[in-house]
Amino acid sequence: MAKAKANPTVKPTDPLQVALATIAEGGVGLAVVTRSGRVAGTITDGQIRRAVLTGKGLDDPVSEVMSDQPVSVRPGAKPKEIGELLSAHRVRAIPVVDKGRLVGLKTLQDVKAGPTPPVAVIMVGGRGERLRPYTDKVPKPLLKVGGVPIVERIISAAAEAGVRTVYLAVNYKAEAFEDELGDGKRLGVDLVYVRERKPLHTAGALSLLPEIPDGPLFVTNGDIITTVDLRTLFDFHWHHGGAITVCGAEHHTYVPYGVLRTVEHHLLSIDEKPSRTDFVSAGMYMLQPEALRFIPPDTYMGMPDLIDSVIREGLPVHVFPMLGSWFDIGSPEEFEKVLLAFATGEEA
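Above: the chain's sequence. Below: its structure in token form.
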């Protein structure tokens, strides 16, 4: 993992894309906004993602999204005070400001506090019918992209983000996963195999976990490839405090015709070959342990059904815009597209 930048800073006029990169480089979930050497505010990864959901673009300036009254501490602040502020605001870092100037950052690591690390549950039990003949001999999550099995990429990304226990929900060719991945030690995790006697779908397979985790669960399909730093997802879920966070990936739809805009039978305008952008479910989720109570034992259940049950109960469900490369390998054409992207270095 790259070393975190000591004091990540941006200017109010910088585009959000620059802020996003600076926050990633800083490794603490936020950047300090400075103007003429003085602290003007802060901006977090989560603020940028929420802004994108409201229609902001990554070319928009930091000034339109930043907090201009940031929480900060003075030099010499006690660890207890810092820890209480970090926990109250659910952030990983807070600026230290002296007479209007940034002199450092204090983090959860500094005060030895923070949320419980997630456990991961990766769904790899499907047969991958749409990807035949590739999957006749090799399960889809074990297909290699850039020389590395897809599921190994997911496990490594989770380990880098702090996950130490990974449950692998297996069914089709289960022994192939054990042969390839073993106990997970070489990837930095404890790998636990959960066997489906029958297909239970994504949510249903969670009922097979041997125990309810103490902290959140990162749940993902085993055929996802993304460049998103999972720490940003984990922080987003923790900060917003929802029962479930659903990852959303941008999907562009193009209409090859002129679309008629009408009121009743009156034509208002014709949009020639318009396009639209939607956030679609990316097959990755964060769940609080209490969400598991909505899953009946040994029952086929998809994530949309679980999410509907949680929403009906009045519990909050949030959307995390991924803002990075995302590939759902569901067809031979998509698989070949991913192979080409990695071969040419275009996956970033």
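The two ends are 16 Å apart (CA to CA).
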